[in-house]
UniProtKB/TrEMBL annotation:
Gene3D superfamilies in the cross-refs: Peptidase S8/S53 domain
Protein name according to UniProt: S8 family peptidase
Main location: secreted
Keyword Hydrolase: yes
Location within or outside the cell: Secreted
Enzyme Commission code(s) on record: 3.4.-.-
Family the entry assigns: Belongs to the peptidase S8 family.
Molecular function GO labels: hydrolase activity
Uppermost EC category: hydrolase
UniProt cofactor(s): Ca(2+)
Natural source organism: Robertmurraya beringensis
InterPro entries according to UniProt: Peptidase_S8/S53_dom, Peptidase_S8/S53_dom_sf, Peptidase_S8_Asp-AS, Peptidase_S8_His-AS, Peptidase_S8_Ser-AS, Peptidase_S8_subtilisin-like, Peptidase_S8_subtilisin-rel, Thermitase-like_dom
Length: 452
């Protein structure tokens, strides 16, 4: 295993450890992480095997199986089967509709009456309608027959990309193997971040009172309930935010990838860990309009919703760097928003250097990052170790923030190109569907940014 450096005590740590299903890989030319000859790739810590009662045991399941099962049996949720294994969902009686031009209040009232609307929400020329009596199919037929409508589609449901299940082993001394393996410590000699470079976490919100995060937050937004704060009622968003920017060098909790970049909490996923394309699009647009330089999207499904694509395009056109998790179903079915061209797609590896058994793959994968047993902040002032591409993505997001802190003149395309080109090639020589361009390297990326 890996030699030890200083262990990190996580008081009140909630351990969520992945149980992966082994996947047989085809024979191919492989480049692996050689722990004997490549010192920079050594992970310098090992867990203690002694259990402790101070650790909270959370009973979650991998690949959102429980949540997907709940959606599959929900009377108001419809299923789209992409193949035998992969599904997308949308909420019945709802539709997202984009009009070619702004419609008047009188016209909106007429439409609401004709579809028996109980609710309508608005984002520029984009509306989300909910009907008391009409199905989504009936609503789409109605709207697609109107000359003034540009497009109409279901209000798709996106899930958080977290794969977590308890392991019977508890660790008294917990660690962050994920930071040394991507050369974070060497990279900090170039930049520890800049508070003027803001990173938005579009997710379940963030624990606004967490001691390791509360001093790192800027104004946020709750797209689900605009009158409420973006406080986290799930834990997922807080964990993602902590990987990026948990307060570092403060003798408490965990270290973030960036010391000084600030987090913009944007709540678009509900307590159960899923959200709708309309709300997620609202969150992306709000973050863009309120100064986000980088946006993390640890969420997705397999439907390339137009409303989501347009929000992504809007942010990209404004210069925002967009990073997304590839998903946790061990499939090559393209996941969105990760598979959009304007987004950097992230797959996950474990500390052996192999692709995480749950991690999605395909030709849309750009890079990989650590995504197994990642310690970070958790809601209700706690800490937890979680696994998933949701945990891999914020490593890349934190790196994007550091790159812009090093050289704020770079465009979003240049930042994405640097992340790809500076990655350490593993797996098949060159870009491949399992590891993309390779494992991110903070030190090499920041050195490249500094020379631009």
């Amino acid at each position: 295993m890996f030699r030890r450096t200083r262990p990190l005590m996580l008081i009140g740590l909630a351990l969520l450890l992945i149980i992966g299903v082994a996947r047989m890989m085809p024979d191919r030319e492989i480049r692996t992480l050689d722990r004997n000859t490549i010192d920079m790739r050594k992970v310098n810590v090992e867990p203690s095997q002694e259990p402790t009662s101070r650790l909270m045991h959370l009973n979650n399941d991998p690949s959102n199986n429980r949540l997907v099962s709940k959606l599959n049996h929900h009377s108001e949720v419809q299923i789209i089967n992409h193949n035998e294994d992969d599904q997308s969902h949308y909420y019945e009686h709802e539709a997202t509709v984009k009009f070619k031009t702004e419609i008047s209040d009188e016209r909106l009232a007429q439409i609401n009456k004709e579809i028996d609307a109980s609710k309508s929400d608005k984002l520029a020329n984009l509306y989300m309608f909910r009907s008391n009596s009409k199905t989504t199919h009936q609503m789409l037929l109605y709207f697609r027959g109107l000359e003034e409508v540009e497009y109409a589609e279901p209000n798709f449901i996106l899930l958080q990309n977290e794969a977590v299940v308890p392991n019977d082993t508890y660790y008294q001394e917990q660690y962050q193997w994920n930071l040394p393996v991507i050369e974070t410590e060497k990279g900090w000699n170039i930049s520890k971040g800049d508070k003027n470079v803001v990173i938005a976490v579009v997710d379940t919100g963030v624990d606004l009172d967490h001691p390791d995060l509360k001093h790192k937050l800027v104004e946020g937004y709750n797209a689900i309930d605009e009158k409420a704060t973006p406080d986290d009622d799930n834990g997922h968003g807080t964990h993602v935010a902590g990987i990026i920017a948990s307060e570092t060098n403060n003798h408490e909790g965990v270290a973030g990838i960036t010391w000084y970049n600030q987090i913009m909490p944007v709540k678009t996923l509900a307590k159960d860990g899923y959200g709708y394309t309309f709300d997620i699009a609202k969150g992306i647009v709000w973050a863009t309009d309120h100064g986000a330089d980088v946006i993390n999207l640890s969420l997705g499904n397999y439907q390339p919703a137009t409303v989501l694509k347009e929000a992504i395009q809007y942010a990209y056109d404004k210069g925002v760097v967009l990073i997304a998790a590839s998903g946790n179903d061990n499939t090559n079915q393209p996941s969105y928003p990760a598979a959009f061209d304007q987004v950097l797609s992230v797959s996950a590896i474990g500390y052996s250097g192999e692709r995480a058994s749950f991690s999605n793959y395909g030709n849309y994968i750009d890079v990989v990052a650590p995504g197994v047993d990642i310690p970070s902040t958790y809601f209700q002032n706690q800490y937890a170790a979680l696994s998933g591409t949701s945990m891999a993505s914020p490593h890349v997001t934190g790196l994007a923030g550091l790159i812009l802190s090093t050289n704020p003149t770079l465009s979003n395309k240049e930042v994405m190109d640097i992340i790809r080109s500076s990655s350490y090639d593993i797996g098949e020589v060159g870009k491949d569907e399992y590891f993309g361009e390779g494992l991110i390297d903070v030190n090499r990326a920041l050195a490249a940014a500094k020379q631009k």
